[in-house]
Amino acid sequence: MTLVKIENLKIHFDTDEGQLLALDDVSFNVDQGEILGIAGESGSGKSITAKSLMQLNDENAIYDQNSRVVYENQNLLELDDEKMIPYRGKIFSMVFQEPMASFAPAIRIGDQMIEQLQIHEQLSDKVARQRSIEALTSVGIPNAKNLIDQYSYEFSGGMRQRAMIAMALSTNPKLLIADEPTTALDVTIQAQIIELIKKEVQDRNMAVIFITHDLALLAQTANRIMIMYMGKIVESGTVRQVLTNPQHPYTRALIESSPDIENFQKELLPIKGEVPLLQDRPKGCVFQNRCSHVIKGRCDQKSPPPAEREDNHFVSCYLYNE
Amino acid sequence: MNKFIEVKNLDVQYSLGKKNIFEKEERFNAVDGINLSIQKGSIVGLVGESGSGKSTLGRALLAAKEFNQGTIHYHFNDGMIDLSHLNKKNLQKFRSKAQLIFQDPYNSLSPRMTVRDIIAEPIESLGLSKSKQDTNERVIEISEKCQLNVNHLNRFPHSFSGGQRQRISIARSLIAQPEFIVADESVAALDVSIQAGILKLLKNLQKEMNLTILFISHDLSVISNFCDVVAVMYLGKIVEYAPKNKIFLEPKHPYTKALLNAVPSINPDKKNITKTLQGEIPSIYNRPKGCVFQTRCPKVIQACYKEEPSLLKIHDHQFACINSDA
Asked: Residue B263's CB: how many other CB atoms inside 10 A?
């Protein structure tokens, strides 16, 4: 069942250099109980996409008129800040990359968790505190009863990220948005956090949008993947479709440039050139200046629309577009 | 093969300061009794979690951090240098022979210097340049080797992307023609498509200049691809040291095994990451007595609490565990 529907999401950023297109016609669904991975390099628009669900983008973001983020027949982009409150921490919840920076350093962790609960639910201090302790315990923080009164700097990186997840889950969200939740962590701690997120998805039938630059991490966690490049979804499908049968030249190149511990003899092939700056966005396909299959007179004219290659496996590339 | 670097019983300490003037200064070993020998022309991967002491070891090897015990010997092409007996003269020489590539290409380049001046700085400050023209020629030569556009050398770092900045950083490290490079998380800040290019460049330069590289990284996938030999560190100790194939195909130490299990593969059919390790790395000034890994080890036995395992050696495979099913 579809939980959230994103339609024609298009965002410009108003900057000194003019209005720069950052997201171009992004449409996708998030289903209940699924982990949807969004992968791409820096500047591909994956965080902007996730933040638009909660309207957390910077104030210079201009949403296109036809853009819609639909939850239960309501277009969230029409809501003002007051009406957005339930979508910021209750129905949707977010885990950020940097666990050090996402807690206020001078407020006890417990007080921050209680505050969030009381914004979204009418709870007494005592009940909110109890709920927070339960949330911390459920993510594997031992002795939560005492640790709840500590400050974030007294926690290690892994503990902080657990506490962040506990806080995000304490309101029983329908959708958890995890933006590089393990990037700052050591790999053994990453494995623990991944297991935790997978378990919570199963227990709660919650959906997760998992944003990362690490395709290998998605291979092990996500059900479906979207590959983004310069604000466009260039390929999407199930994990297996995208990673074992990649179609878009960018996805292929990305996989060929990634080291793989299960295949360490592999020769890494860098992608030539670099991601263009937003102000140098090419006309036509955004990948054309780095693509080895570019078709002159075609790729530099119009952006290729998505084509369905297999069941629900979409690729935006003229190689597959008659 | 000839030994290039020999490290014996190396201790590197940090101070926690004094509580008051009557008390003794508290210290702890960030690097604890390390023995390591590195062969000429090899790429050694040094892997471990944060707080394992990998950067400290790298710094000690570069004489950028004083060590408290043990010895470090270098066998350079034109003679040996003993880091425990450094004087001004051979420190200068050492600086030209051993260089560092930093992690962060944004903060490690001075924003007020042109790229040309940044790259030239090592040979200028070490007095290795004969003339301005000589400097200029060498800057151009190394820039070309590092695939930098020589027409852009008068620009400032801010006009370069992360990948290009890391090329500048590499050019700076190599201009004095060192024999040894420490690359400390040098590709960690880069996107994977750019990272692949930097790794390829480093590998080509390594072959061309017969460099020995200590490649410090937390990323086992990168290490598995790039390095010849791998050392695994935990709480200031090397727990396993072997050629790459042995580390990745027949790991012996339970910590190495757990690390490998936790690394995801890009192929969804190949592997499932498993969480074999509970808990986290203990704080380094709470180092357990006996084996350092005992608090998290799935195979811990009584003896592990009593005695610190020494590095066993089976051919070229070294590991420190008394209960490995080797």
From this structure: 24
